[in-house]
Design brief:
This protein is an alpha/beta fold. The protein is built from nine helices and seven strands. It has two domains: about 200 residues, NAD(P)-binding Rossmann-like Domain (Rossmann fold); about 40 residues, no CATH class. It is globular, with a radius of gyration of 18 Å. The mean pLDDT is about 95.
């Protein structure tokens, strides 16, 4: 199926690895142009440049979504290279593994800064260009724990819940401008974050065995961690003009970990 993305222009934050990199790869495979950002420019360029189509249709920019000036510069470089924008994928993020009682005020602040302003700033900066698109879309990459809190991720759970609420507000507010806003909520995805935790917590354990036990402990019905490309597909599908009547929606990609109704 042709998703109608060829020749369109997208921003992807947090694109140097995991879901962001997989989404960038899938958009390029669909013929889209992609402006990708991350804090580590060398790593970003190395990984994005290896993707098919990147040399002709990808722009890489160093940007921290917590810094308004860097975000504005990122959007400006994308528009200078492409001439316009059709969508934004707000993917930059991480999790803070700590219970509420072990989380200090600065950590609470940092989580809210990243999860909320890390979305607000790219949307604000891109808004004038999105309004000019005939198929504008924003996809906020969130987590299932936005609706199903995890005590071991107290601040992250709260910040994710706030982002889910904000996404619904943006969907309602921007619909009149022809801009759709949707959320993709992740469960346990096999990215560098989990690899690093394995190396820190159980370096002597076989990773596949450790990951399977993690999935079982967290109640993942499918019994495994997800793959980055399994998240990238719904993101790209929601960007597609074929999803033109979908806004304010939330798609879970968690292998059945969600238990809420």
């Amino acid at each position: 199926m042709d998703l109608g993305l060829a020749g369109r222009n997208y921003l992807v934050t947090g694109a140097s690895s995991g879901v962001g990199l997989a989404t960038t790869a899938m958009l390029l495979a669909e013929g889209a142009r992609v402006a990708a950002c991350a804090r580590d420019l060398d790593r970003l360029r190395t990984r994005v440049s290896a993707l098919p189509g990147a040399s002709e249709r990808a722009v890489t920019v160093a940007a921290d979504v917590r810094d308004a000036g860097q975000v504005e510069r990122f959007v400006a470089e994308a528009v200078a290279g492409f001439g316009g924008l059709d969508g934004v994928v707000n993917n930059a993020g991480r999790s803070l593994l700590a219970r509420w009682s072990d989380t200090d005020d600065q950590q609470w602040h940092d989580e809210l800064e990243l999860k909320l302003f890390g979305v607000l700033r790219p949307v604000r900066a891109a808004l004038p260009w999105l309004r000019k698109s005939d198929a504008a879309a924003v996809v906020n990459v969130n987590a299932i724990l936005a609706r199903q809190p995890e005590a071991r991720l107290a601040a992250t759970s709260a910040a994710r819940a706030a982002l889910l609420n904000l996404s619904a507000t943006l969907a309602a507010e921007l619909a009149g401008d022809g801009i759709r806003v949707n959320s993709v909520c992740l469960g346990l995805i096999d990215t560098g974050q989990w690899r690093r935790r394995h190396d820190e917590l159980a370096p002597d354990r076989d990773y596949p065995e450790w990951a399977a036990e993690l999935a079982a402990d967290r109640g993942v019905a499918m019994g495994r961690l997800g793959r980055a490309e399994e998240v990238a597909y719904p993101i790209v599908a929601l960007l597609s003009p074929r999803a033109s009547y979908v806004t304010g929606a939330t798609v879970d990609v968690g292998g059945g970990v969600g238990r809420y109704v």
